[in-house]
Design brief:
It contains three helices and no strands. About 80% of the residues lie in helices and about 0% in strands. The protein is mainly α.
Length: about 80
């Protein structure tokens, strides 16, 4: 399978850059998904669970922001 040995030859994107892009996308998707979970917990009046999901959502946003900053620096400088 190409994914096991892909180093950018097929996709044109080096693994480390692709992995960073994937990480940012995953963090953002997680933040969106957690919004639904927060609303579910609030409807159930379960503040403990809602608070947990809010904290997780904040962590996901922070991870996305850090990943975007790093990706931006690398793309701006062509750091490969």
């Amino acid at each position: 399978m190409a994914g096991d040995t892909e180093t950018g030859n097929v996709t044109g994107t080096l693994d480390k850059d692709y992995n960073l892009i994937w990480y940012v996308e995953s963090c953002l998707n997680n933040a969106l998904r957690l919004e639904t979970y927060i609303q579910d917990a609030e409807r159930a009046k379960d503040t403990e669970v809602a608070d947990l999901f809010r904290k997780a959502q904040a962590d996901s946003r922070k991870g996305a922001d850090l990943g975007k900053q790093l990706l931006g620096k690398r793309l701006d400088t062509g750091n490969r």
